[in-house]
Design a protein that fits this description.
It contains four helices and 13 strands. The chain has about 190 residues and is α+β, with helices and mostly antiparallel strands. It has a single domain, classed as tt1808, chain A (Alpha-Beta Complex), CATH 3.90.1570. Strand 10 and strand 11 form a beta hairpin. The protein is globular, with a radius of gyration of 17 Å. The strands form four sheets. The chain has a six-stranded mixed sheet, sandwiched between helices.
Length: about 190
C-alpha cells in the first residue's frame, strides 16, 4: 500500500493560520495560548520594552504572537512567535507581513505545562534555535520560582538568574533599559 506524503507547509501557509503557531520542519505547529499570569507577566515586560522603544526611537517592541521568519535552521524551524520581543530591524517593506529575521531579544514566559522534563528540553531546543538564528538575548521567565533566566548569545549555556528584589536588564543590547523583577511578578 502506497503512503501519501503531505507537502511541506510554507511561510505563506503559516500566514493564513488564525491561531498562534510556528513553522518547524515543514509543519505548522500550533502553540497553546498562555494563561492569566503568564500573559500578564509577558504583557508587563512588553509594556516596559515599548516605552523604551518610544523613548529611544530605537527598535520596536512586540506583544505575544508577533511572527518572525528566519532561513531554515538546522532543527527545521523557520519562524518564531515569542511571548514578547524586541526587534532592532531591518523592518519589512510591507508592515502587515511577518518580521524577517529573529527577534533581537526574545521573552518566553512559561505556561503551566512548561515545568516537565520534556518541556524543559523543548525550551532549551527553542533557545538554541533562537541563538542559531541570531537572537542576542533570550529570557526564560519562570512564573513558579518568580525569576528570570537571562541567556546571552555569547554564553548560551550560562544564564544569569534575576530574582525578586533585583532589577533585570538586557545590557548591552538595550542600554539603560531596566525592569524591576518585583513589578514583573506583582
Amino acid at each position: 500500500m502506497a503512503s501519501v506524503q503531505t507537502p511541506a507547509a510554507t511561510l505563506e501557509d503559516l500566514a493564513r493560520v488564525t491561531e498562534k503557531a510556528e513553522l518547524i520542519d515543514g509543519r505548522i505547529v500550533p502553540l497553546m495560548p498562555i494563561g492569566r499570569k503568564p500573559g500578564r507577566v509577558a504583557g508587563r515586560i512588553y509594556r516596559s520594552l515599548d516605552d523604551y522603544a518610544t523613548q529611544t526611537g530605537r527598535g520596536e517592541a512586540y506583544p505575544d504572537n508577533a511572527g518572525f521568519t528566519v532561513p531554515r535552521l538546522s532543527s527545521g524551524r523557520q519562524s518564531f512567535a515569542p511571548d514578547a520581543s524586541y526587534y532592532l530591524g531591518p523592518f519589512p517593506d510591507d508592515p502587515m507581513r511577518f518580521l524577517e529575521g529573529p527577534p533581537t531579544l526574545a521573552i518566553e514566559a512559561r505556561s503551566e505545562n512548561d515545568y516537565t522534563p520534556s518541556a524543559a528540553a523543548e525550551l532549551a531546543a527553542k533557545r538554541a534555535d533562537y541563538f542559531e538564528a541570531g537572537t542576542r538575548i533570550v529570557w526564560d521567565v519562570d512564573l513558579v520560582a518568580e525569576c528570570i533566566h537571562v541567556y546571552r548569545a555569547e554564553a548560551p549555556a550560562q544564564p544569569t538568574t534575576f530574582r525578586r528584589g533585583q532589577v533585570v536588564d538586557a545590557e548591552p543590547l538595550l542600554p539603560g533599559w531596566r525592569i524591576d523583577v518585583d513589578w514583573i511578578f506583582a
